[in-house]
């Protein structure tokens, strides 16, 4: 199928070994994040082997775009069934908990919008038996473009700000990282440093081999579960599929520098550990585990991130990305650089319009109830 001067072809996804060369050849001509790299998506295909279709976009015979689409059925409210297309996700909550960010179609640099238009036009015109195209997490601007290109109704499912530190800009100023922070955050970090130094020398430690790297990842588990919870959609460590994916990723990529595991030690005690993805001199903070301290003056997370940021700056990395999330420490340590969303682009289906109307009515009731509650509080709880 042709979209303008771009031609789109759709076929079952070949084996990872067959697709690898094609993907990498295009990837080298893109400005993609780690989540659209073969480093991530090739591993996703190898570990989860989803039943998927590959979109290939060519311009004058040259490959300029790729995307992997999975067809799933989603059941909501016990009665509504929706046939969904998902980009680079499986539709299984257990498998998708690895949570792709900075998603989208892999596109040659400068042709991102044209590739998206070609792929979305192909899906809308050549496939008729689906109700929703679910994509995330993508930038809010990208989601708006997808809605405009497709002409579909966009329903927002999730959103979060992104924070990070521009290490290249920091390096150019010659400023110490702490000097860029607010006085209160700087004070908290320096106070924590002094208190921890009473236990011994503070140092960042990295594993010497992949077995030690896996041990650090496993050691984060109990702390992460304690912090985020053991239930569905809480800590990924409660999900064996999440753990399987990342242990395999570390085994596959630690030696080549695709992942980094760092522990902050105070004397002989580990007080924080971090699991990061590394790609094109960018650090993507994926998860961490911090010691539980009875003294709230001890801030292992703030201190650990601050030391890691200086360490990565020293080693020539260009960006430290906290990725999506509105946790307070991210806004303390970084600047907001993006807004990520997950959206559902919906065809004009009666069942989806009814669902949307019910959702809007419910939201109005909740808003009105919230306003009434505010009035009650202002009047001392009396009407």
Question: In brief, what are we looking at here?
Answer:
The chain has 2 domains: 2-151, Aminopeptidase, CATH 3.40.630; 163-337, Aminopeptidase (3-Layer(aba) Sandwich), CATH 3.40.630. The protein is built from 12 helices and 14 strands. The chain has helices at residues 16-27, 38-48, 93-96, 112-126, 140-150, 167-173, 183-197, 210-228, 240-253, 300-314, 328-333, 350-378, and strands at 2-3, 6-12, 52-59, 62-76, 80-87, 106-107, 132-139, 153-166, 202-205, 259-266, 269-279, 282-290, 319-324, 335-346.
Could you please describe the fold and organization of this structure?
- The structure is a single chain.
- By secondary structure, the chain is of the alpha+beta class.
- It has two domains: 2-151, Aminopeptidase; 163-337, Gcn5-related N-acetyltransferase (GNAT) (Aminopeptidase, 3-Layer(aba) Sandwich), CATH 3.40.630.30.
- It is 41% helix and 30% strand.
- It has helices spanning 16-27, 38-48, 93-96, 112-126, 140-150, 167-173, 183-197, 210-228, 240-253, 300-314, 328-333, 350-378; strands at residues 2-3, 6-12, 52-59, 62-76, 80-87, 106-107, 132-139, 153-166, 202-205, 259-266, 269-279, 282-290, 319-324, 335-346.
- Strands 1, 2, 3, 4, 5, 6, 7, 8, 9, 10, 11, 12, 13 and 14 form a 14-stranded mixed sheet that branches.
- Helix 1 packs antiparallel against helix 2 and helix 4 (112-126) packs across helix 5.
- The chain is globular, with a radius of gyration of 23 Å.
- Residues 375-383 have low confidence and may be disordered.
